Amino acid sequence: MTKVMVVEDDAALREIYSIRITAEGYDVVSAGDGEEALAMAVREKPDLILSDVMMPKISGFDMLDIIRATPETAKIKVVMMTALSADDQRARGESLGADRYLVKSQVGIEDVIAVIHEVLGDKPATAPAPAGPPAPSPFAVPPAPAAPAAPVPAAPTAPAASAPAPVPNIPTIPQA
Questions:
Q1: Phi and psi angles of residue 30, each rounded to the nearest 5 degrees, phi first
Q2: What is the pTM (predicted TM-score) of this model?
């Protein structure tokens, strides 16, 4: 199984990336800083490292420089992710051998997943297209038969226009 290492000092982000990358079918290992990542890279031999740049102990740039200089890890693909959007920072990452350099504020998690697939040269797993209409479920409840339509009552008709209706005879009460 293809292995991806997530290197991020923010534990919540590290967890989010790890869960999403695992959902793509990759084996995921993670590290909280560059120093831990270097030891883990030699031990775990990931196919790709997704790393933050600004981290405690050893920065992502220094980690990348050491990875590229170490024969056991030199061929590992590395995607750098950072808040640093300046062109000189991007140039530094590329000159150190980053396969891709992403600015966190400019990409979402699905963009990161797409870059991982692209750098690894694989394609995301997709469900096969259905071959036709779905088969009926053996647990499906058949629809109830349609009830016959109730007759619509006719609107009341007004009496034919003829003489006015008689006024009832109302007795009068004499006044005292």
A1: -140, 160
A2: 0.69
